Give the backbone structure.
Amino acid sequence: MIIKSILPLVVLISLNLSANQIEDTINKYSYHYNIDKKIINTIISTESNFDRYAIGISTSIHQDKIEKYLKQNNLNYKKMKLKNSNKYFFSTLKNSEDKAVNLLKFLQKNNIKNYGLGLMQISSYNLKTFAQKYNTLTKPDTNIKKGVSILRWCFDKQKITINKPYNAIECYYKGGNIYNYKNYEYLTKFAQNFK
């Protein structure tokens, strides 16, 4: 009986440790890269809802192959058709590290190139630019460090002050694209989650 009554407490403590570790990591890289931690928190909330094994896949090809893989391997996912496009977006949620790493291997093997990984949904395009191995990005410290370093790069390339982060946030979302933006589709979602 005692074991049953303390089990929820043990689960709660382990969840809090994980949340505390993520918060400590955000604070560390917020300070190191001079980026407001509220911006980092909002990106993580918007991108993955704090799911370290989240993978988002955007594609106009291979939809059937991807969906078949997700179903055969019992991954939790959502599928959405993107507006005004022939692209689909698959979002995997609350899966294990093994399932996430195996999905990444599947994407690599099948030359599926447009996806985001982990807490900050590091773009697959940034893997080449920032020389990062995909299998390390499920680790919160690595993912947050890489995400915040990309965001810092966007701030520097856009020559933006911390008071006006709009282009840097859009740059981050668009995988490091530093061109002038005509619309701020991501910024709207970001603003809804900003606290």
The chain is about 55% helix and 10% strand. The chain has two domains: 7-51+120-195, 53-117.
